[in-house]
Design brief:
This protein is α+β, with helices and mostly antiparallel strands. Helices cover 51% and strands 14% of the residues. Helix 3 crosses helix 4.
């Protein structure tokens, strides 16, 4: 997201679990807030017999926190400082459209594959020979970024594209080696995070 007022933006599962790593908020705080907002949405749906609620928002004199449904299984949690709502809403809508497009693309690829489960993809990844590139030789080219995104998607799914874009937008002068290390932090399993880095570091 491009709005300077955005202090935090991360993806949440329909069960209230963070799918991306919080940059500023504490992990337990995200769990509590997302869980509370989802519970409120479910309570309202039952009380008024409404269909699936698309958005829950809390507004204060200093900022906003909003939980917005992107797909059936994924939601976007956004925390912002106080700012003109029109600009923030537009930025959020563009982010959601990007995410939905990425998810549709990922699902299309998945349907065409004979064996595309995350476990299988990770297993194939570990069977490949480690690249002979060294950290000092890495260049942050469009091809390299695309390769990182594809590898990361094998561990965390289609949200990899969003993470790559967010990392680049927040670190315009980042080096390729540091880019890989930041992406690896979004893989919770340490062994898998190491495997991801080894794809690019010899």
């Amino acid at each position: 997201m491009r709005s300077p007022e955005v202090e935090e933006a991360l993806l949440i599962s329909s069960q209230g679990q963070p799918l991306t790593i919080p940059l500023k908020m504490k992990y337990n705080s995200v769990l509590t807030i997302a869980g509370t907002m989802l519970h409120l949405a479910e309570r309202i749906e039952r009380e008024f017999r409404w269909q699936e609620i698309q958005q829950i928002a809390v507004r204060s004199s200093t900022g906003y926190i909003t939980l917005i449904r992107c797909t059936e299984e994924i939601l976007l949690l956004v925390k912002t400082a106080k700012a003109p709502l029109g600009f923030l809403i537009k930025d959020i809508e563009n982010t959601i459209k990007t995410l939905q497009t990425e998810l549709e693309t990922y699902q299309t690829i998945e349907l065409k594959s004979n064996d595309s489960s995350p476990l299988t993809l990770r297993r194939k990844c570990t069977q490949r020979t480690t690249s002979n590139k060294t950290a000092t030789n890495l260049k942050l080219t469009p091809d390299f970024i695309n390769s990182c995104q594809q590898e990361l998607a094998k561990y965390i799914g289609p949200i990899a594209s969003i993470i790559c874009k967010r990392t680049l937008s927040k670190n315009s002068q980042i080096e390729a080696s540091e880019f890989v290390k930041i992406l690896a932090k979004h893989i919770r399993d340490r062994q898998q995070a190491l495997e991801f880095q080894n794809r690019f570091f010899s």
